[in-house]
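Incident log, structure service

09:12 report received: a user says their structure output differs between two submissions of the same chain.
09:20 pulled the input from the user's history:
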Amino acid sequence: MAKKNIDKSSQELKKLNKTYFDLKMKHSSSALKETHKLSEARKDIARIKTKINQEKRSLNNE
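09:34 re-ran on a clean worker, output below:
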């Protein structure tokens, strides 16, 4: 069950990384008006990475 959660979270992480990259490109070309979305995306990525690491640790402890 935890393996499925890790796979699902990894897919979500890839999607967030792509979103973050797109936001950075828009910001560098001065097309991004809502710059707060950059920090939100960065924090979302950190949350997902933390969730993945917790799942991996729980698998190792079992």
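09:41 both user submissions now match this output. Likely a transient worker issue. Closing.
09:42 reviewer note: The CA atoms of residues 5 and 55 lie 8 Å apart. Helices lie at 2-28, 36-61.
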